[in-house]
Amino acid sequence: MSDRKFFNEEMETLPKDKLKTMQLERLKAIVERAYSQNQFYRDLYDEAGVKPSDIRALEDIQKLPFLEKKTVRAAYPYGMAFKKPGDKDGPVEVHATSGTTGKSVPVFATKKDIDYWADLNARELWMTGMRPGDILMNCYGYGMATGGFGFHYGAMAMDAMAIPMGSDARQYDRMIDFIVDFGVTSMCMTPSVGLYVGGKARERGVDFKDTKLKFGLFGAEPWPWETRMKLEELFNITAYDEFGMTEFLGPGMTCECETRDGMHAWADAFLVECINPDTGEWMPEGKDGELVWTWLTADGTAMIRYRSRDLSRVWWEDRCACGRTHPKIAAIKGRSDDAVSIRGLIVFPSQVEAALVKFPETGANFRIIVDRKNDLDTFDLKVEVKDASILSDSARNAAVSREMAEAVKTITGNSPKVELVAADSLPRASGGESKTASARVEDRRKK
Ligand SMILES: [Zn+2]
User: Fold this and answer.
1) Helices 349-356 + 394-412 axis angle, to 10
2) For the chain, what is the total number of helices (H) and then of strands (E)?
3) Whole-prediction pTM value?
4) 239 CA to middle of ligand 1, Å?
5) 243 and 319 share a domain?
6) What is the pLDDT of residue 240?
7) Within this chain, do residues 197 and 243 fall inside the same structural domain, yes or no?
8) H-helix or E-strand containing 140?
């Protein structure tokens, strides 16, 4: 077994100031290239009145307009491409988002992209404990989505053996067999598949303590710490979180190191910003906001300032305890479509729900009403109560309202003005949408 600590030591441990200098050079080059070679970007930047020469510092990225999913979709199929099939050194592989809510977003990869992709994924596999000669069972889909191919190329680049299992449910029993029979040392899959297969193995009486399995990488959906504990117990492994997006050939964007305190985001390849989803302005370092990504090393497809709608936070230590120098993002918390910014803090309806669920007095329904008075945000919270008698008992009403406000403040940082209301008096969206933001939040500032 190799005792090297890093797969790509020079890049993974490059001092932060050097990484920033590299990011600026690469940002300038990619914006220049997008403007000069791609009509979509030329039109976008002309309309915004911004030129590549306006980018003189990393902060200047804020002058560039965001890419929204809908604008990127409108450029389908080749609008975002730097190179098309048939061009010199053109794309050799294409992947695409699922397109379940509209047109797919395609990403065209040249040989240069594939090589970089393999390197980034090998860094992540190495970082989570894999070494040459190990066996990776890859239970992500091998298809238009990127999970399967990304880790596959990574395993090949680090001389490990990949089992291209894929994510098909008909393979679940075979996953368990292969871990035992082949001596699989590491695996990657979604946490929900992990829980299912781990439970199935237990039913079959398989004890992974008797196998060579040591590590698991889990991603593609948000998962709480409790799920991690469960996966570690079921498989007798150390479990790591990783996150990537198909639009950027993720995986190979972010992954946890041994500290498991945030995921390193590879700064040589990606520039990640964290913005207030309402204003588009940068959040202070370490504060919750929406992640915006720029692909600095892209060769086949241009992705500059793409809004992910994913909520997390970003911070950048000089050097992590693991020795790496790349910034970190926290585990993905949710989608910004469901969040509202109040007095500069992001509030999720799910957080309010978590605070209220402890109170026996409440039903399931509440409504957040945000407004602005004298330039200050107001935060009113209407909460349905099961028992109408509380509404006429002013002492009890006041006490419960105050306790609820405190509970919400503890979780969100914002103290609401609570008003208790009768059951079934608040609007309720139909069917499965009853918990969506639109039913939970009324933002009067937007009118
Ligand atoms: Zn680290």
Assistant:
1) 130
2) 13, 21
3) 0.80
4) 15
5) yes
6) 97
7) yes
8) none
Fill in the DSSP letter of residue 81: B
Instruction: Locate 13 and state its tokens.
Output: 């441990």
The closest alpha carbon to 306, from 271, 267, 334, 336, belongs to: 271
Å from CA of 256 to ligand 1 middle: 7
Domain closes at, from 337, 368, 391 = 337
Cα of 317 vs centre of ligand 1, distance in Å, is: 10
The residues facing 135 across adjacent strands are 161
The alpha carbon of 117 and the centre of ligand 1 are apart by a number of angstroms equal to: 20
**Do 217 and 244 touch, CB atoms closer than 8 A?**
no
pLDDT tens column, 215-266: 999 987 767 777 888 899 999 999 999 999 999 999 999 999 999 999 999 9
Separation of CA 105 and ligand 1 centre (Å): 31
Token reading at 99: 């397109």
Task: Write the DSSP string, 58-79.
Answer: GGGGGGSPPBPHHHHHHTTTTT
How far apart are the CA of 326 and the centre of ligand 1, in A? 8
Residue 96 scores a pLDDT above 50: yes
Identify residues whose C-beta is under 5 A from ligand 1, the ion.
257, 320, 322, 324
For residue 262, the CA-to-ligand 1 centroid distance in Å is: 8
Residue 242 within any structural domain of the chain: yes
DSSP 255-300: EE-TT-SSEEE-TTTEEEEEE-TTT-PBPPTTS-EEEEEEETT-SS
